[in-house]
Structure formats: C-alpha cells, structure tokens
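Reproducibility note. Readers wishing to regenerate the assembly model reported in the main text can use the exact inputs given here. Chain order matters: entities are listed in the order in which they were concatenated for prediction.
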Amino acid sequence: QVQLQESGPGLVKPSQTLSLTCTVSGASISSGGYYWNWIRQHPGKGLEWIGYMFDSGIVYYNPSLGSRVTISADMSTNRLSLRLTSVTTADTAVYFCAVGEEYWFDYWGQGALVTVSS
Amino acid sequence: DIVMTQSPDSLAVSLGERATIHCKSSQSLLFSPNHKNYLAWYQQKPGQPPKLLFYWASTRASGVPDRFIGSGSGTDFTLTISSLQAEDVAVYYCQQHSKGPLTFGAGSKVEI
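Running the prediction on these inputs yields the following structure tokens for the assembly.
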C-alpha cells in the first residue's frame, strides 16, 4: 500500500517561493513505472493538475503555471518535491501529491494547505 | 486543453434511490486502437483527498462497491450510484486521462 504525506510551510509571502515535500512509503520513486503528481485544490473549489515526474526524471507541467513550477525527487530519501515561484494569493490552495501507473491517480496524500499572504 | 463539464452541480437523492452524474468532454476520450475511453472518476468527502472510483470510464478501482457504475463513451459519460447510501455523500469529479494537461470537471455534490 502506497502512502504519501505532504509537508512544508503553511504560509508563504507573495512573490516568494512555495516549497513542498511529499514523503513516499510503500513504493520507490527510483523504481520507475509510476507517475508522481502534484495536484492542487483552491479553497472550496475543484482540482487542478500541476504536473508529474515519471521514471525518475521525465517531467511534464501544466502550461497554465508557465515556468514557475518545478517537480523533482530525492531518491535517497524517497521524497518528491514541488517548487512554485513568484506566488500570489491565487496560489493559495491545498496541495496534494498523488501517484498512478497511468494518467489517473490511484493514491493520494492527505494534502497540505498553503496560504499566500503578507 | 480538454474541458470537462459536469452536471448537475449538486443533487439531492433519497437513501436507496439512484443518483446520476454526467460528464462531458470537449474532445473525444475514445482511443480507437484499444477501444478505451480515457476517463476517471473520483469521490471526495469533506476534509479528505479524492478517492479513485473508476478509470477507463468503467473499470472499477479496487474496493469500490458495485453500486457505483461508470459508463459512457466518446464525449459523454455517466457515474451512477444505483442505491444511495449515507456514506456516499460527497463531491464527485471526472478527469480525462487522455492528453496533457490532465483536467478535471468542476465537481458534482451529492447530498441526501
């Protein structure tokens, strides 16, 4: 059973960088064959896919976020990371990490609320 | 981007009755070579992450009760709860897994 747990600062100032980590257990990011995703949910709203990492290095991001997003992984600690630069209040959301063998999401973390505010 | 449109936004159904949610995609999600529809359904209860119900439009995920039925093809899809139980109160989302960027519907809230 794959388990995912997001962690990181709950408050980020506008124009700064949002950084989150997803600790993975029950599977190895380095083993390949899985799509490791970040998805966010604005308060009271629907779901927005941010991007994925596949096979330990192939990344694909939602063009709506432009060049602000970076997804990476630390294979030694089995952690997935998200960096989102130049944040605004519109980036306030619950951020989920999720994984699947195809382009759907079998397992999800509980989510981490990030508020962008000065 | 493929736009996913769900209806209704919310619905109230009596216990034991049928609940039906519709999802329409702006492009066909049917891939002819394998005859598969690239659509997933999720259930999200308050304070919880979404839970996968279906992929390939009608393939039930592990542990999903058989009162949940996924159907449809091409651009029109349906999630049916054949006999609503109290624990089915949730928001339901469709998601296309055909091409990037992956996109979701806005959600349909099921209440009793």
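We highlight two features of this model. Chain A has a mean pLDDT of 95. DSSP finds no helices and eleven strands in chain A.
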